[in-house]
Specification:
Helix content: under 10%
Radius of gyration: 13 Å
Structural class: mainly beta
Order of helices and strands: EEEEEEEEEEE
Shape: globular
Number of strands: 11
Amino acid sequence: QVQLVESGGGLVQAGGSLRVSCTASGRTLEYYAIGWFRQAPGQERERISCINVRDGRTYTADSVRGRFTVSRDNAKNAVYLQMNSLKPEDTAVYYCAADPGNYVCPLHPDYWGQGTQVTVSS
């Protein structure tokens, strides 16, 4: 079992930055693909970025490319999402999810965190 906990969300003004963290316990994330997802009220869940923890391959969605960066710290068993130049439309609950395997993005995530709220004011 892998337990995932997100942290680092909050309220920020447009143009600001936040870094959200996904910290794992129970197992090492080394052989997992980790995805960052977000869901705004009334909208479908969107996959925005992923990372293969073992080799560092990443994926970033067009909607956030150039503003968001995913990274990992294997020693801390954690994955991060650095969000810059935030816009009000980035407001959502941000989740991390994990799936074992040599993928960049989790295909059918077995494990989800509880989410962290990110609110961007205009």
